[in-house]
Structures are given as C-alpha cells and as structure tokens.
Amino acid sequence: MKVLIASDHAGYELKEALKEAFAKDFEWVDYGTFSTESVDYPDFAHKLATDVANGSYQYGVLICGTGNGMAMSANKHAGIRAGLCWSKEIAALVRQHNNANILVMPARFIPFETASEIVKTFFSTDFEGGRHQRRIDKINL
Question: pLDDT class for 138, splitting at 50, 70, 90?
C-alpha cells in the first residue's frame, strides 16, 4: 500500500524512523520535510491533504511537534478526517468511529515505540460504519 507521509522539522526524525521501521509494510511517498531545519507545517499538511482529498492516495501520516498544527491544517480540506493520536487506543477509535484518513502524531510527546504502535493500530483497524457514518456525513459544511 502506498501511504503519504510528511512532517515539519520537529517531526522529521520520527518520520524517518517510522519510514525505516515500516519499509516492508508500506511504500512511503515522502512529501518532506527532509531535514530538521525550521519549516512551516501548513505547507506540508496542505500538500498531503490535497492528495488524499482528491483520491490520489487513500491515507496519509502527518507529524509535527504537538500534532495540532498539522491536524488543524489538514482538516481544512473537505473529505479529510485527520485524527491526532497520542496512543494506540485513540488510533483505533479514530479509524473505527471517525473513518480517519490521515493519522497525525505529536513527535515531541510520544516515544518511537508508542508511535510505532499507533501506526500498526491505525492501519489494521477498520471503520465500523453504521451509526458512525451518519455522524461523518455531518462533518463537512
């Protein structure tokens, strides 16, 4: 499966570690950044979210210091449901209940081991549909 991935400078090291750890599971399409030099997170979030929203890719992963900036930026796009995940339990719920199509993680607040569990859970959990679909249908204005 091809999965988009992007980060800002704060998330760069975690992004690179996850790409390596999951190289056999995913074909990563890396939208940057490509160093720890300071960048503006919305530039990366918007590029990735655009390509998920238009159907070019099914899923994306965004990483920044708190995850909030990336999530806020990505969720401006119609059809994007970017879920900020701090634990594997939240990752399961954003897939089961919200049908999240972008996983967002806070690099400054979770260790690699937790991030790895979150990725595994996010990509192995299915959307439950049912009553949750009715709620998702109300997200976009």
Answer: confident
Distance between first and last Cα of the chain: 31
- What is the 8-class DSSP label of residue 102? E
C-alpha 108/C-alpha 90 separation (Å) is 17
Task: Give the SS3 label for residue 118.
Answer: helix
**Active-site annotation holds for 85:** no
Q: Which of 103, 86, 102, 94 is nearest to 126 (CA)?
A: 94
Based on its alpha-carbon atoms, the radius of gyration of the chain, rounded to whole angstroms, reads: 14
Q: Is 132 a catalytic residue?
A: no
Q: Which of 12, 5, 4 is CA-nearest to residue 107?
A: 12
Phi/psi at 75 (5° precision): -75, 0
Which candidate, 50, 57, 53, 71, places its Cα nearest to that of 8? 71
From the candidates 64, 77, 85, 132, which is the catalytic residue? 64
pLDDT band at 73 (very low <50, low <70, confident <90, very high): very high
Identify the active-site residue in 9, 77, 85, 97: 97
